Amino acid sequence: MTETAIDRLKSVNADLQKAEADAGRENGSVNLIAVSKTFGANDIRPVLEAGQRVFGENRVQEAMGKWPALREEFDGIELHLIGPLQSNKAKEAVQTFDVVHTVDREKIARALKTEMEKQGRNLPCFVQVNTGEEPQKAGIAPKETDAFIRLCRDEIGLNIIGLMCIPPVEDAPGPHFALLEKIARRNGLSQLSMGMSSDYETAVDFGATYVRVGSAIFGSRDYG
């Protein structure tokens, strides 16, 4: 029998519960973000019907094309922007999303704050940290993160609730998760967005409060 997205969702949730227990953490302390990028409404609907309400998208335009209609069908959807944001898309991002995980430049932070004030919204935000200091990857360098958090929080007035990272593919993720947790702790931030389909159980062990799981739920992607 072919495994469905609902089967995989149940399996991921069971693995999360076990990871929480193994780490000595409370059941339900980790939020599962089902990453639905590249998947259409017909792929997402069964996962919504199974009770999942927290989803992640990488691209503002793609999210705008499918989520307004799904929000009309289903109550309680929480949509997280987990991909890079351009400042010229800040208006649409604030309209479409409930949480932003990828604040990594002053220009983005100021554009988001301006739009939130215009729209009367106060979205929780994460600062993205480039823990591997990879030149091709978005995110603030670890040594610059403390100052950037202060800028976003104290000067610009963003609601910074935590940090996010994507470790280098070739590295063991644990040291990157440990570094993110250390930076968050010294800045008084309680939320950690870390861990994806291949390493979310490890992330739970290092204190993740949000894990971003896509292919382990929806299956492999066709990027066309």
Can you describe this structure?
The chain is 45% helix and 16% strand. The protein is of the alpha/beta class. Strands 7-6-5-4-3-2-1-8 form an 8-stranded parallel β-sheet. Helix 4 (90-96) packs across helix 5 (106-119) and helix 5 (106-119) packs parallel to helix 6 (142-156). The chain is globular, with a radius of gyration of 17 Å.
Brief descriptors of the model:
alpha/beta; eight-stranded parallel beta sheet; 224 residues; globular; 9 helices
What's the number of helices? 9
Mean pLDDT: 96
Query: How are strands sequenced across the largest beta sheet?
Result: 7-6-5-4-3-2-1-8
Backbone structural class: alpha/beta
Radius of gyration: 17 Å
Give the % helix. 40-55%
Q: How would you describe the shape?
A: globular
- The oligomeric state is single chain
Q: Count the E strands.
A: 8
Return the string of H and E elements.
HEHEHEHEHEHEHEHEH
Uncertain regions spanning at least 5 consecutive residues: none
What's the quick description here?
The protein contains 9 helices and 8 strands.
Give the SSE map.
Layout: H1 5-22, E1 31-35, H2 41-49, E2 54-57, H3 60-73, E3 78-81, H4 90-96, E4 99-103, H5 106-119, E5 124-128, H6 142-156, E6 159-164, H7 173-186, E7 191-193, H8 200-205, E8 210-213, H9 215-218
Parallel strand pairs: 1-2, 1-8, 2-3, 3-4, 4-5, 5-6, 6-7
Helix pairs in contact: 4-5, 5-6
